[in-house]
């Protein structure tokens, strides 16, 4: 039996995420990497993982992080992940189980790319995100609508729809 989004939020003790949706960190490596670079101020965990849930009416606003992020599909319907790469190209990844529609169970968003996500018409999508080096909120940048639209005017419609500020 498929559970409702509210049941999943309660069961997994998910909390509101600043970019939209709900999340819970499920893993943070006890070991750290001394990155020794300007990209990461200080050390980072080898890896981190979260559950992430978006409901039909919600979206994950455009943001970027300094690490690669691997997305994993778990339950619900297809999740669309919209990515603006470092060259300014927009692509959409379909994360889900409908392989006839081009869905995949795993996908990678490369470090530094802007990305946003939204359910593709389903009641919800429950996914996981694994980040390496591990996620730290100091590596997280939420997009500003006007600035991102100025940088990528060819994508202003989707930027306007999937930003919060």
Secondary-structure-based class equals mainly beta
Helix content range: 10-25%
Number of E-state strands: 13
**Secondary-structure element order, N to C:** HEEEEEEEEEEEEEHH
- Rg calculated over all Cα atoms: 16 Å
Number of helices: 3
Approximate shape? globular
End-to-end Cα distance, whole Å, is 38 Å
The overall pLDDT average reads 94
Q: Which band does the percent of strand residues land in?
A: 35-45%
Strand order of the largest sheet: 1-2-5-12-7-10
Low-confidence stretches: none
Largest sheet: 6 strands, antiparallel
Explain what the structure shows.
Helix content is 12%, strand content 41%. It has 165 residues and is mainly beta. Strands 1-2-5-12-7-10 form a six-stranded antiparallel sheet, with no helix packed on it. It is globular and about 50 Å long. The relative contact order is 0.23.
Features:
six-stranded antiparallel beta sheet, five-stranded antiparallel beta sheet, 3 helices, globular, 165 residues, mainly beta, 13 strands, single chain
What's the topology here?
Blueprint: H1 5-11, E1 15-16, E2 22-28, E3 32-33, E4 44-45, E5 48-55, E6 60-64, E7 68-76, E8 79-84, E9 90-95, E10 106-109, E11 114-119, E12 124-132, E13 141-142, H2 145-151, H3 156-161
Antiparallel strand pairs: 1-2, 2-5, 3-4, 5-12, 6-11, 6-13, 7-10, 7-12, 8-9, 8-11
Concise structural overview:
By secondary structure, this protein is mainly β. It has helices at residues 5-11, 145-151, 156-161, and strands at residues 15-16, 22-28, 32-33, 44-45, 48-55, 60-64, 68-76, 79-84, 90-95, 106-109, 114-119, 124-132, 141-142.
């Amino acid at each position: 039996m498929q559970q409702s989004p509210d049941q999943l939020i309660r069961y997994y003790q998910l909390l509101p995420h600043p970019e939209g949706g709900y999340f819970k960190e499920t893993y943070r490596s006890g070991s750290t990497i001394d990155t020794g670079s300007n990209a990461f101020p200080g050390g980072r965990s080898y890896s981190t993982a979260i559950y992430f849930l978006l409901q039909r009416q919600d979206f994950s606003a455009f943001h970027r992080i300094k690490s690669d992020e691997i997305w994993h599909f778990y339950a619900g319907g297809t999740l669309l992940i919209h990515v603006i790469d470092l060259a300014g190209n927009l692509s959409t990844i379909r994360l889900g189980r409908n392989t006839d529609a081009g869905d995949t169970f795993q996908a990678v968003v490369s470090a530094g790319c802007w990305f946003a996500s939204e359910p593709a018409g389903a009641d919800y999508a429950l996914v996981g995100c694994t980040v390496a080096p591990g996620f730290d909120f100091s590596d997280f940048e939420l997009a500003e609508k006007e600035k991102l639209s100025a940088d990528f005017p060819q994508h202003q419609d989707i930027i306007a729809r999937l930003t919060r500020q």
